[in-house]
Amino acid sequence: MNEQIKIDPYGFREYDARWLYPENVNLKGIESLGKGLGSQIIKHTNKKNPRVTIGHDYRSYSEEIKENLKKGLISTGCFVEDLGLSLSPMVYYAQFNLNSDAVAMVTASHNENGWTGVKMGIKKGLTHAPEEMKELKEITLSEDFLVGKGNEKKIDNFQEVYKNDLIKNNKITKKIKVVAACGNGTAGIFAPDILRGIGCEVVELDCKLDWSFPKYNPNPEDMQMLHAISKAVKDNNADIGFGFDGDGDRCGVIDNEGNEIFSDKIGLLIARNLSTNYKNSKFIVDVKSTGLFNNDRILTSNNCKTIYWKTGHSHIKRKVNQENALAGFEKSGHFFFNKPLGYGYDDGINSAIQVCHLLNNDKRKISEIVKSLPKTYQSPTMAPFCKDSEKYIVVEKIVSQIEEIKNKKIKVDNQEIVDILTVNGVRFSFKDGSWGLIRASSNKPSLVVVTESPTSDIRKKKIFEFIDNLLQKSGKIGKYDQKI
Which of 440, 330, 441, 347 minimizes the C-alpha distance to 394? Predict the structure, then answer.
């Protein structure tokens, strides 16, 4: 490989590309990625000059990453249409609106500063899945590039087109006071305008763009961000608080009393609300999500079916598309709304809009609506460090251990494991509905651990202790990002 190209092979993740910049990838490496992506798009679309819509998030180095990605794309023959500063869902929407052949969004989403990456897709509304990422990695690392004559043009004012699309069919009649928290990320120039546009009264929290992220990472699963939203909701006597991640495809929710509502529970409430008008629908949820979807009385009475599937925005998006589901929900806050509610991709602001519809249709406060759900004790998503080169092997071994524990009927907190789901790592369940999950993170050198119990907080913790004990014995894990 050309010596001046730096591109760590581990940056090609399950469904997007992410690197520490400039440690693990340099600008020449990004240009190579552009050449690889351009060659892949041409191969899949069978077009000499496919049109590629591109945007970037608000990080200090995102624009230079984008410029080099474009250089690579153009060298293969792609016609690049640059939207400028964007949210990921705005770029996805643009592919429908502009009828382009592919998309590339320069973002590291909610990863800390220093990370960069690209989310990309060819088929409308879908992003690369593991097969496409594997192919892209092979083309890029083997430098098997096509050569053509491309060009670029700027698309002006597309931010307004995207905002208006979300506003036009979503007006609400009830005056809802919302806190819109953006962690100084890109959503700051979108979310407040759109929420005001549909009829909300908006209290802005950290909506001023600042690529140093002075307070905390724009990540709606980050406890610091959630605490800040909680305080703002209480201080302003707001009806609800929304937290958006760095590239605007995820949304976290805080109720009117300042309590965090895990996104899977919000997903269940939205599914219930939608099931009344859309009977016989399918919903897709990820393996980190609450077990409550399984036997929910309202979903059951409306003849709706829930499928648990692999965690990751690309996996859920594809499953929603494949099953023609009405919506999909991920515990991390990625929500996917299919026609007639959306285009199938994840959009954090559209998720917030759906929650506003839920409030608009109900006389109760959000805290009261949440209390109508059966009580469960849930852990946050916990991520112990594990090397990219080792994480899948560790999980494989844990799967075998848990299968053996089930077969031997060994008890965990006096409960036998009754069910094991291995579509993504391992999710093991007990008779009382409690469960635990261990999987490899798709975009970071870490594992992912979640536990839930409808019985007690103690059982939730006991299941975590059981998982942690197995992990510690592997000798392959480091510090957790957060722990119960």
Answer: 440
pTM: 0.89
CATH number of the domain within which 416 lies: 3.30.310.50
Looking at this protein, which amino acid is placed at residue 266?
Answer: I
Which domain range does residue 51 map to? 9-156
Residues 339 and 470 grouped into a single domain: no
Q: Residue 472 in contact with residue 43, Cβ under 8 Å?
A: no
- Do 121 and 253 fall within a single domain? no
The rounded average pLDDT for each run of 10 residues, N- to C-terminus, in the chain (484 residues) is 83 94 98 98 98 97 98 98 98 98 95 94 95 98 98 98 97 97 97 98 98 93 93 98 96 96 93 96 96 94 96 91 96 92 96 97 96 93 96 98 98 96 96 96 92 97 98 97 92
Among 359, 374, 389, the domain-final residue is 374
- CB 289 within 8 Å of CB 264: yes
The helix-helix angle for 27-45 and 62-76 (nearest 10°) equals: 40
Residue 152 vs residues 34, 67, 72: alpha-carbon distances, Å: 14, 11, 12
CATH code of the domain covering residue 335: 3.40.120.10
